[in-house]
Amino acid sequence: MAQQKTILITGATAGIGLACAQHFIAQGERVLITGRNQEKLNRISQQLKEQAEDDAQVIALLCDSADLSQIQSMSAKLQADNIRLDALVLNAGVFYPALFHDSTEDLFDQTFAINVKGPFFTLQALLPVMNNPASVVLVSSIAVRKAFATASVYSASKAAIEGYAGVLNVELADRGIRVNSIRPGVTLTEIQHKAGMSEQDISDLKNNMADTPLGRVLATTDMIPAIAYLASDASEGLRNAHLDIDGGFAL
After folding, report:
1. What is the average per-residue pLDDT within 22-35?
2. Which has the closest alpha carbon to 34: 86, 91, 83?
3. Quick check: 106 and 96 in contact, CB under 8 A?
């Protein structure tokens, strides 16, 4: 019987992060989830515990990826509880759409604080609790290689995390830590509503995606096989890989 793995997923109260947590719990793994809203974190944690065979499979941690003090507190708690991680899915992210000439310094700073600074310092803080070997999965975006109007800041933030991933693979090699990425295409999550899209906008988006080779908009569950593979021992030979899961949209 395979040994239970311990996997931490940031931003796991919705979207791809939540789908990941549900998958790994169904596989019998121990899952740590983070979120920045305590009420929502409690609600999602309870839902996941109801899915799990044992409540101990689910650990909820309040942590805003833009708040370095909360990141450090999370690390201290894991060390105090003697929790070791086999995999870390750095999923927490935001998308604030704006045309280039309308983009503000605040929008830029908020995006980079969560999408770039957050994953960087989360991994740094968690190094003391990472096993050898361990897998780090970055949730990047197809926006790194395909241009989208209103996504200049978002695209730059995702390119930035891929930029430091290669260096981390070299520097953390002696710790047995490997870093790889997935690049989701247009995927239906809460991010559309948070970005200010109306129901009509989302309906139009779905219709537009019917022209892709896949023939539909992507779902969060479409990301799970790739993330599960990268988090598993089967991916031990991969370093700095970027798996495009876009339904052929960037072709």
Report:
1. 98
2. 91
3. no
